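Figure 2 data, in text form.
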Amino acid sequence: MTDETAGGAVAEQSEQPQRRGRGPRRGGGAGGGGDRPRRGPRDGQTSEERADGELVDKLVAINRVAKVVKGGKNFGFAALVVVGDKKGRVGFGHGKAREVPEAIRKATEEAKKTMIRVPLREGRTLHHDGQGRWGAGKVMLRAAPAGTGLIAGGPMRAVLEVLGVSDVVAKSKGSSNPYNMVRATFDALKGQSSPRQVASRRGLKVADIVGRRKDGASLGEVAAEG
């Protein structure tokens, strides 16, 4: 090949537009946005319920924390989950892990181990009004007639749904922190008593307790007398 031919080939190649390939995604490093895991629901929101045998669990809140280290960030997750059978049993738990599914699994296992039984009236509402408190969280639960519906929001609604309550009026008067709200709700539920429990504690018959309720006294007032 002569020098003229070689020079022409080089000039011809230089005239052709260079193909540009796609470079690496921005933020694809250890601490960039490309590797950032997807966030779960915000505090106070619930995820879709999942049936696990006879139990139903709801993801109430998930919190992500980041530790800045040399070369990037290390992410960790904390999940808050409530579990219930919708028949009067409910529990909650929280778990921490480097991945979201593992944190949820830990929280679910803890919730199953700490379940409590709450007496329900006609399987749809509470027997009497109640108040609960945990830290700065304050909640109020009121029994409601049939057809009222579940009037509650955020973490309180998640707890009452998996518990199986369909008619209740709930109000949060304190902190909106989901952990405080859930614990305050459980504090209120632990104070619930059925007519049978009140009668057994006071040495009376169930008919006597139910009769006093018909006369206008609430079960909470009757239980307070004992």
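Caption note: The chain is about 35% helix and 25% strand.
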